[in-house]
Amino acid sequence: MAVQELINIPEYWQTSVRPRGFGELCDMVETQGKPVGIWCLEEWNPKTGEVTRRQINKNVVTDNGAVNILASAIANASNANPWNNLYINNNAGSTTLTTALTNGQTGVVSLAVAAIPAAIPLNNISPATGVTQILVGYGTGQTQTVSMNGAAALNATSLTTVSYTSNAVYAIGTAVVPLPNVGENPTNANLKVNQTGTVVEQYSGVIASGGFTYSATTGAGNRSVTVVFVFKNATNGGSTANGNYTDCWLVNVTSAAANTTTGLFVGNYIAHEINTPMRVDNSNNVTATVVIKI
Length: 294
Hints:
Blueprint: E1 4-8, H1 10-13, H2 22-28, E2 37-44, E3 51-59, H3 63-73, E4 85-89, E5 95-96, E6 108-112, E7 133-136, E8 144-147, E9 158-164, E10 175-178, E11 201-203, E12 212-215, E13 224-231, E14 243-251, E15 269-280, E16 286-293
């Protein structure tokens, strides 16, 4: 008996070479960067085990469903690997310009900067691939993204870039920040590989339930969780070492546990922010806030 196929997936019908299995069909579905659910319902004869009808359909992730996903994955207590920890360190070479750039300045192949607090590798945090990009004008309304053309060592005062034309005036003191990379999946060892100077780092520990706020606002991209933690030194009631911190990660460990490399939860570090140096000392606390949207 022929199987009745009811496949409500437009991409399936738009190609002359159609996938033979459900997994292959899922691979061809266009998600547009949004969470997508794909259902496969099969009717089958319990006596013979033969499938008589198969229906495949794409559904939306509901607002409450999206928040439930976030609450399960990012919370103070949930599954075996909740993403309930924030980690900060000084692994990024955030700096500022010491020589201004003019609007339309051509052939820029080097940026004069204040001594960088950590090395900047050519290819971002290993094992990521792709050239490290840096953002000139970070934190302002006028920015420009440029590509590195060579690694820079700790305390370097010059950053080598692929030749480009400046798109605006950038004054002395303008922030210059290396950007995180979507391909990053660092081990615990190379997470700190750029900290060739004094290493400063701190895990928040399991964040209390009050540090998580969930929003069920309707519409894809509007369902979110906000995670907040305040890093303080001992004088102010915390345990964070004094120092300048450049990076913040959302993680599922309370210390540098062995990085997960197999199974469903691969890697300990899932969201990475590189900022201009944040200072923790007797006069400065750092409030880290991360918003994850679905």
